[in-house]
């Protein structure tokens, strides 16, 4: 509940001027106008319903607010043509006010894309003026001070809910939160396999994942084939055979861009044969491929195993290509 303030004064006037007995006809308190045309507080719309004149020259201002801070003057008017008097210099009223609930606004009203400049502004009416502190939800402690929170080049890691606190000597008030939702193209997709050993006849699922906002859509392609193999995060090959060997691409795409990675599958003809898997990550000026041989479970003599290991080293192939493929050895 707001306060009520009484402005009090004392005044005197001569009993008579010549043959005229002096009578006070009107009492006025005002902040607007001047001595010749003062605006009575009772008639001032800024004080509507909040002014009450009491005994003597006391005036009560109810529901006092910060905007009531001003210099107030008292004036009385008598029945004499020259009997108009104003107190000077007046009474200065300074109203302190706790901060209102702070509001947060953002410089961008549309989609926020990675790299955009973004400003958040916190504001609150208060007297004395409020100081401001910024917070990010689920982050401990304040992240900035001042009425503005500035992102010169917003990043995906800046996504989240932000709020501010406005504080003066009277009180501390906290705003509601505002969401920064940064959109960005898919990161380099990651490809994983449902099986570590590839043999004819098994069912194999290739899975593709990528961080992005909005969420990425996925499309699978096979080298030298025009039509997509599949749309979706997973590509499943049932009863896999040697005809399924080859280079498979996963493309992750959204409204902000796309990235693709690839995996090379070589399917063995029998369980005792060896299966070659090379995982490749794309998008760049060079092609780097690591080839790893997987030996299927089989009983060999110690000499055969040593021989097998000696003739099947991990090899590195490097060739210039439009895409950059970074391969992981399985």
From TrEMBL:
Organism per entry: Poecilia latipinna
CDD domains in alphabetical order: Ig (cd00096)
InterPro entries reported for this sequence: Ig-like_dom, Ig-like_dom_sf, Ig-like_fold, Ig_sub, Ig_sub2
Segments traversing the membrane: none
Residues annotated as signal peptide: none
Ranges where the Ig-like domain occurs: 102-175, 186-266
The protein, known as: Ig-like domain-containing protein
Gene3D superfamilies in the cross-refs: Immunoglobulins (2.60.40.10)
Source organism, top-level taxon: Eukaryota
């Amino acid at each position: 509940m707001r306060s009520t303030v009484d402005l009090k004064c004392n005044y005197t006037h001569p009993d008579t001027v010549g043959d005229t007995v002096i009578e006070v006809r009107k009492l006025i308190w005002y902040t607007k106008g001047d001595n010749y045309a003062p605006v009575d507080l009772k008639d001032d719309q800024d004080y509507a319903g909040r002014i009450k004149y009491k005994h003597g020259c006391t005036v009560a201002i109810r529901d006092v607010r910060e905007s009531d801070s001003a210099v107030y003057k008292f004036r009385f008017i008598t029945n004499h043509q020259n009997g108009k008097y104003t107190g000077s210099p007046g009474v200065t009223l300074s109203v302190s006010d706790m901060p209102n609930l702070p509001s947060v606004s953002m410089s961008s009203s549309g989609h926020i894309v990675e790299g955009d400049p973004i400003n958040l502004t916190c504001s609150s009416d208060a007297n004395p003026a409020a100081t401001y502190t910024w917070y990010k939800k689920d982050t401990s402690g304040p992240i900035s001070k001042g009425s503005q929170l500035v992102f010169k080049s917003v990043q995906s890691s800046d996504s989240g809910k932000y709020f501010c606190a406005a504080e003066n000597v009277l009180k501390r008030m906290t705003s509601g939160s505002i969401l920064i939702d940064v959109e960005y193209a898919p990161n380099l997709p990651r490809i994983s396999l449902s099986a570590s050993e590839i043999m004819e006849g098994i069912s194999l699922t290739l899975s593709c994942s990528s961080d992005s906002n909005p969420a990425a859509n996925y499309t699978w392609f096979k080298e030298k084939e025009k039509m997509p193999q599949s749309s979706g995060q997973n590509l499943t090959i049932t009863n896999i055979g040697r005809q399924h060997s080859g280079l498979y691409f996963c493309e992750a795409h959204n409204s902000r861009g796309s990235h693709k990675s690839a995996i090379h599958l070589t399917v063995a003809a029998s369980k005792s044969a060896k299966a070659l898997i090379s995982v490749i990550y794309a998008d760049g000026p060079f092609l780097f491929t690591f080839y790893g041989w997987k030996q299927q479970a089989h009983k060999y003599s110690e000499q055969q195993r040593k021989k097998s290991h000696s003739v099947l080293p991990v090899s590195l192939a490097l060739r210039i290509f439009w895409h950059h493929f970074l391969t992981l050895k399985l």
